[in-house]
Amino acid sequence: MATATRTDPLAYLGDQIAEWKGAGTYQRLRVLESACAAESKFDGREVINLASNNYLGLTTHPKVIEAAIDATRRYGAGSGAVRTISGTMELHMELERRIARFKNVEACVVFQSGFAANAGTVSAILTPEDHIISDELNHASIIDGCRLSKAKIHVFPHKDHEAAARILAELEGKPGRKLLITDGVFSMDGDIGPLPQLVEAAERYGAIMMIDDAHSSGVLGRNGRGTVDHFGLHGRVDVQVGTLSKAVGVLGGYVCGSRNLIEFLYHRARPFLFSTSHPPAVAAACLAAFDVLENEPERIERLWENTRYFKRGLTSAGFNTGISETPITPVIVGEAARAHQFSAELFREGVLATGIGFPTVARDRARVRTIVTATHTREELDSALDIFRRVGQRMGIID
Ligand SMILES: *Cc1c(COP(=O)(O)O)cnc(C)c1O
Known about the structure:
Layout: H1 11-23, E1 39-42, E2 45-49, H2 62-75, H3 90-103, E3 107-111, H4 114-125, E4 131-135, H5 140-149, E5 152-156, H6 161-171, E6 178-183, H7 195-205, E7 208-212, H8 227-230, E8 239-243, E9 253-257, H9 259-268, H10 270-274, H11 280-295, H12 298-316, E10 328-334, H13 336-349, E11 351-352, E12 354-356, E13 366-371, H14 378-394
Parallel strand pairs: 2-11, 4-5, 4-6, 6-7, 7-8
Antiparallel strand pairs: 1-2, 3-9, 8-9, 10-13, 12-13
The chain binds pyridoxal-5'-phosphate.
């Protein structure tokens, strides 16, 4: 019996990929062939790595590595189940208590990632009757959480706290709860959210205040406690999200707040209920990383020294570094194709810095994004600056 030739029902995906290749927006994955560090090997090439979120160099800290190995030997490679069935180990509980103490809040729940923490929390605590007031540049995981909640979404222009307050004023007296939500540090421009003003607006209109501190955990505030500590807003932010994947150097996300908030999320946050908990190595490595944050504050000082040095080098060479206030420093060049070419040439000369274009950033604001870490040496930063100047002049980005 002859079988009809099967046509691939997914052929449209290939058409889309071909279109991306034609437009020059197709992205091949760079393969990291060493540990993530100040200098790393990608695609067979040793380069200065200005493209990681490993702010404090904790991915390779001996105490963090040792903790992961030790926990694996004792407790195995995996946890075996979701937290609510049988996958809650003492290490998971200890990490949550540790973070709650560090952040000066009643309680904490750890999720598999920062993405899961945001999406799982926003969708769990709101219903379709509620309202979300959200900065236009908030992270994708917040946006997905907002959509999953089916609440009404009101987007305000970037950092425009007066616009946020106006939206809250218009909603006054209407049914439904209000959630005001912002990133602490924005990942594309490295600018800091106007938290004191937003917190005030939330208090004035009785809204829930939520902050995503993914890029501020381990970077801002005492010992890296985040933007709430940086601005002295303890007790005035209802939901604080942080990540264990960036400066903490491992993997995971957490939510800090009242005991009730955390108990509620234990019962209703879907990534917590329906996805397996961290391997013991992850929880133990995170615990060790918090020891390092508390015992080696000089790492954070070095991060900021390096940040100031590198930013000064870029601006005095004539580059446009935008409005950054943190170790995330964009070098803005205009069109997306130009940013991708800039990134490719930097890589050829020995620097990895990611090209980012539309739709992640505005069409005429494409950039190469740099993130220095505490572990970059002065020589590495000087050499990276030399390469930026050389390639920038060759491409006519600077004089
Ligand atoms: C990276 C990031 C996340 C996601 O964190 P992961 O732990 O990598 O999932 C969430 N929010 C913001 C603002 C981020 O930059």
